[in-house]
Write a structure and sequence with these properties.
CATH architecture of the largest domain: Ribbon
Shape: elongated
Structural class: alpha+beta
Number of helices: 4
Distance between the termini: 52 Å
CATH class of the largest domain: Mainly Beta
Number of strands: 2
Strand order of the largest sheet: 1-2
Radius of gyration: 21 Å
Largest sheet: 2 strands, antiparallel
Helix content: 25-40%
Number of domains: 2
Strand content: 5-15%
Length: 117
């Protein structure tokens, strides 16, 4: 991942490309191929001479980096499945094997999960 003067020079060379292509060209791609936009923009701001916090705050009681955060959004997959990730089940304290009744409200397209005792 380029930083400083090298980053600025490379972004100028790629200036006619899309933002994602510029970020990729400067090496801001994760192991899965996902573009690391936040890291790219942070490095670009710092390369232009602006001092910003490092975004990670630890022992002083401030926010620490925790990776990707739950967005409280999901989508229906191509196979028709609707996935609720483990970050949501953890937030609710749900355990593996716990059973639920599914209650559907067609008119409002609402799904309710009702725990079975």
């Amino acid at each position: 991942m380029l930083e400083g003067k090298e980053l600025l020079e490379k972004t100028k060379l790629l200036s006619k490309k899309s933002e994602d292509e510029i970020a990729k060209g400067c090496g801001y791609v994760g192991p899965s191929g996902r573009i690391l936009r936040k890291s790219f923009y942070r490095a670009l701001i710092e390369a232009k001479g602006y001092k910003i916090g490092n975004g990670r705050q630890g022992k002083n009681g401030n926010r620490a980096s925790r990776g990707r955060q739950a967005e409280f959004r999901t989508k229906v997959h191509g196979n028709g499945n609707l996935l609720i990730g483990n970050s949501y089940t953890k937030k609710l304290g749900l355990e593996p094997g716990q059973e639920f009744k599914i209650d559907l409200k067609k008119e409002s397209k609402t799904i309710y999960l009702i725990p079975l005792s």
